[in-house]
């Protein structure tokens, strides 16, 4: 796993090692820095002896109304959500091909490809861009035995979402047929499928994981 905060990363490694009993390594990486994308891939290969799966999960969602948006806002969010995603995958291609079972899993969103949300036009644009990248990357990498797919989460209970306050969370739960926010585990299971041998003939596809959030035409349709 990678991240910008080494202290938080090492803490996550300890938690995962204890709770899941797995072997986890942390590599410090800022996906908004091109050199970090290459270094993280190469360090991972050195640590593990190869690379089978890349989960491009890093993303930011700063709120910014379109009327107040600056070119700096756009550069920063595209650097992390799009540029970092693409360059990480690009540097991983040789190792993924060598593994013979290469898998790329992108974390997009329902926001942008399917829905819109006030204040997140730039975020939605980045998430739609990831799917545009996915489709052509899937074609180019298919002959190398590499699949490229994407998970589109709805509202998931993460630190960032919790920080938006209880009123926001309550309004979101009301708009979801299952009447709950998704969990990180819900997204993890979807990623695990795309990374598995069972998904070997699935590529260039996106899977919405949102508790049915995008289904109703309106709150009135919820009954």
From TrEMBL:
- Give start-end of the signal peptide: none
InterPro entries given for it?
Answer: NAD(P)-bd_dom_sf, SDR, SDR_fam
Q: Which Pfam families match?
A: adh_short_C2
CDD domains documented for this protein: SDR_c
Q: Which family does it belong to?
A: Belongs to the short-chain dehydrogenases/reductases (SDR) family.
Q: What is this protein called?
A: SDR family oxidoreductase
* Species name: Svornostia abyssi
